[in-house]
Amino acid sequence: MSLLKVPNPTDMELSILRILWSQGPCKVRAVAEALTEERGEKVGYTSALKHLQIMYQKELVWRDESE
Q: N or C: which end of the chain has fewer CB within 10 A?
């Protein structure tokens, strides 16, 4: 029997997941703004985008490229 290896999310990834769980699907800019508000420090668009790209590779999130 093989066990699935589930990646452990980082603190930043957990913050992003909490935002997505509470707000539902949203754009990168909305995630960056919510992170800035939650953490009390500026989180830039490109930083949020990079974290989401890594999370996508880990299969922690999915993206909708239809728009």
A: N
